[in-house]
Write a structure and sequence with these properties.
This protein starts with a strand and ends in a 5-residue tail after the last strand. The strands form 4 sheets. Strands 3, 4, 5, 8, 9, 16 and 17 form a 7-stranded mixed sheet that branches. It has a 6-stranded parallel sheet with strand order 12-11-10-13-14-15, covered by helices on one side. About 25% of the residues lie in helices and about 25% in strands. The mean pLDDT is about 95. α4 packs across α5 and α4 packs across α10. It contains 11 helices and 17 strands. About 50% of the residues are buried. The structure holds NADP nicotinamide-adenine-dinucleotide phosphate and zinc ion (ZN). NADP nicotinamide-adenine-dinucleotide phosphate binds next to α1 and α5. The site of NADP nicotinamide-adenine-dinucleotide phosphate has 29 residues, from α1 and α5.
């Protein structure tokens, strides 16, 4: 067993604090990664505080992991000691069902194993990236082609990147498409960058007037303040697709009204309480669709990382120390981060 320092929440109301965990010794198909950086996703906060009512304690969050390979089993083929590597939201799945065969392990019929908080449909707890090292089987380890100097900024691609890339691909975003991104947080800012790189015309919908200039700098062609009814009306029935990243319950109807005939709004934000909508007439009159999407498969996560390396896309981050995490959570709740906190494990305290 390998000892690792970590940070854990012991209950829904206790702040994260130092905690020691153990990782298995790497087996023949395993890779051990010394974690260099870990992004801070809003899902980490939902989990640490048991907002989704499924948290196993102690809870060691973190699923935007990048680091260096320090050990590899003798059956590991595509990655070697010394390489940079990443781990996202999943570390295992059944491997036999149709979604697993099709590379969509996130929809595994038996439930994938989360990097933290264990198998989604029950089972033992797992510990995530707020730790010094992790052991993962090779088939769930990602290769990183970005320049090493950008490594901290690459970490958020492992969740925020793939969670936005996958639906943008699935709903065929690209040239000639008008795409709305709702919310400029960790997911939203990657959504803006990736949709722009795919060639779409991007409209950012934000509740924060202070983010207008950043939205444009990050790749939005237009920015709309979502609380301003007049600004919203200008987009009525104009959008092909909307990606909604908001982390809190809100009225979906003002956004549904912006979709064209056959347009889709896909929810990726996962608030703990339900949205107070939709109004069915906003769907039936233009055959609009309301959909959801969960992270992305391992093959697609590699495709996304390669796409981002090719287009020189990384996350805008604020680097923090591990012992800053509780303050970072409070700031994330106030949308006070541009646009992702990333923990620097070199300063693990
Ligand atoms: P985040 O960085 O906190 O960003 C959320 C953004 O939502 C905020 O920046 C804000 O943008 C907007 N917002 C508007 N009203 C809000 C309110 N009352 N409370 C909070 N945010 C509000 O969060 P994130 O890491 O991007 O995650 C967003 C959501 O996606 C979370 O619920 C997370 O659990 C979920 N998630 C889902 C998946 C999936 O697979 N579907 C994967 C990862 C995360 P503006 O200031 O621009 O309005
Ligand atoms: Zn996440």
């Amino acid at each position: 067993m390998i000892k690792s320092k970590a940070y854990a929440a012991q209950s829904s109301t206790s702040p994260l604090a130092p905690f020691e965990i153990h990782r298995r010794d790497p087996g023949p198909e395993d890779v051990q990664i010394s974690i260099l950086y870990c992004g801070v996703c809003h899902s980490d906060l939902h989990t640490a505080r048991n907002e989704w009512k499924n948290t196993l304690y102690p809870s060691v969050p973190g699923h935007e992991i990048v680091g260096r390979v320090v050990a590899a089993g003798n059956k590991v083929r595509n990655i070697k000691v010394g390489d940079l590597a990443g781990v996202g939201c999943m570390i295992d799945s059944c491997g036999h069902c149709k979604p697993c065969h099709e590379g969509e392990e996130q929809y595994c019929e038996k439930g994938f194993t989360g990097t933290y908080n264990g198998p989604v449909f029950g089972g033992e707890n797992t510990y995530g990236g707020y730790s010094q090292t992790i052991v993962v089987k090779e088939s769930f380890v990602l290769r990183i082609k970005h320049d090493e100097k950008d490594l901290a900024n690459v970490a958020p691609l492992l969740c925020a990147g793939i969670t936005t890339y996958s639906p943008l691909r699935h709903w065929k975003t690209g040239p000639g498409k008008k795409v709305g991104i709702v919310g400029l947080g960790g997911l939203g800012h990657m959504g803006v960058k990736i949709a722009h790189a795919m060639g779409a015309h991007v409209v950012l919908f934000t509740s924060s007037p202070s983010k207008i200039d950043d939205g444009k700098r990050l790749g939005a062609d237009e920015v709309c303040i979502s609380s301003d009814t007049r600004q919203m009306e200008a987009y009525a029935s104009k959008l092909d697709f909307i990606l909604n990243t908001v982390a809190a319950p809100h009225n979906l109807d003002p956004f549904l009204q912006l979709l064209k005939l056959d347009g889709t709004m896909t929810l990726i934000g996962a608030p703990a309480e339900p949205h107070p909508s939709p109004e069915v007439f906003n769907l039936i009159f233009r055959r609009r669709q309301l959909a959801g999407s969960l992270i992305g498969g391992i093959r697609e996560t590699q495709e996304m990382l390669d796409f981002c390396a090719h287009h020189n896309l990384v996350s805008d981050i604020e680097l923090i120390r591990m012992d800053y995490i509780n303050t970072a959570y409070e700031r994330m709740l106030r949308s006070d981060v541009k646009y992702r906190f990333v923990i620097d494990m070199a300063n693990f305290q």
